[in-house]
Write a structure and sequence with these properties.
With 304 residues, this protein is mainly alpha-helical. 75% of the residues lie in helices and 0% in strands. It has 14 helices and no strands. The mean pLDDT is 83.
């Protein structure tokens, strides 16, 4: 059976999405120095929602079946609602290294879920590439310096695992919905749902914890709302309309690479030799999962 050619447009979109999501760690970390995490997420979703107000009128003409409403509900519930709740609380109880190890499980979880719910054919090549990429992501997570303490790693890792279940479920839902609905419509639903969901959490946080406004934090929130939410999720959702969920999810393993490099360039954090090697392992896994079996054999034998 001839393998499908690589969709380089989808690959480029995924790489841009992972780069943008990798930058979100620096943006979020800087913004919460003066604003609480719930307020950062709420205002991030509010900024994104304001961008989509222009398109709201056109959404009312869409015909949506009962089955599609179920997938829409699953999409917005998984991300941004439950995913951010799990992620924020997980990092309060476990170390960044252990959280990174749990995060690297998401592509494999998505691959198996896509086989079950979307009837996608998950090849041995995709599984092999996923395992290699996961190994590199785990290595990169443990090689990074971490000064935080894990007060309750069992609870923290369980919450992080819940976040990855949400991420996998979100990918499955978007892969299904993107066959009919536009990226703009799906992103608008996410933004509006996230804004409403996090409003009570942000209000409670504002009333109970110190809150300080700064222009730097505001700019980082706008960056997250426009670039990370609209740009990152837009590119990811666009790619899911052109590529199987099992293959697209493997690119999630690129996030720690971009996060480490950007932290080095922007915040001056240490970039170690082990981190560079682990990043190469991740890239190898992603490459193996995408290239056709025929080309992989030719490359292995030196005939390509």
């Amino acid at each position: 059976m001839t393998s499908k050619p690589i969709d380089w447009i989808a690959v480029l979109a995924l790489c841009i999405a992972m780069l943008v999501w990798g930058s979100s760690f620096t943006a979020f970390k800087t913004a919460i120095e003066t604003m609480g995490p719930m307020n950062v997420i709420f205002w991030r979703m509010t900024v994104a929602s304001l961008v989509f107000l222009y398109f709201v009128k056109s959404f009312f003409s869409l015909k949506i079946s009962a089955k599609e409403w179920k997938y829409i509900a699953m999409m917005v519930l998984f991300e941004p609602c439950l995913y951010f709740l799990f992620e924020l609380h997980a990092l309060q109880y476990t170390s960044a290294g252990q959280a990174g190890m749990i995060t690297s499980m998401m592509p494999l979880m998505t691959a198996f879920a896509a086989g079950i719910f979307l009837k996608e054919v998950v090849s041995k090549q995709v599984i092999t590439g996923s395992v290699i990429a996961v190994s590199g992501a785990v290595w990169l997570s443990f090689s990074s310096s971490d000064s935080s303490h894990a007060s309750n790693p069992l609870l923290g890792n369980a919450l992080e695992f819940g976040a990855m279940v949400c991420a996998a479920g979100y990918t499955i839902a978007v892969r299904y919905l993107s066959q009919k609905f536009s990226v703009i419509f799906l992103l608008a639903l996410q933004s509006f749902a996230g804004m409403l969901f996090f409003l009570p959490f942000a209000w409670w946080e504002y009333r109970t914890t110190p809150f300080a406004f700064s222009m730097e934090a505001a700019l980082w929130v706008i960056y997250q709302g426009v670039i990370v939410t609209i740009g990152g999720y837009g590119m990811y959702n666009f790619a899911l309309g052109r590529m199987e969920a099992s293959k697209a999810a493997i690119y999630i393993n690129l996030i720690p690479i971009f996060a480490v490099v950007l932290a080095y360039l922007i915040r001056g954090e240490v970039l170690t030799l082990v981190g560079i090697i682990a990043s190469m392992v991740i890239l190898t896994g992603v490459f193996i999962s995408q290239i056709s079996r025929e080309k992989l054999k030719l490359l292995w034998t030196g005939r390509l």
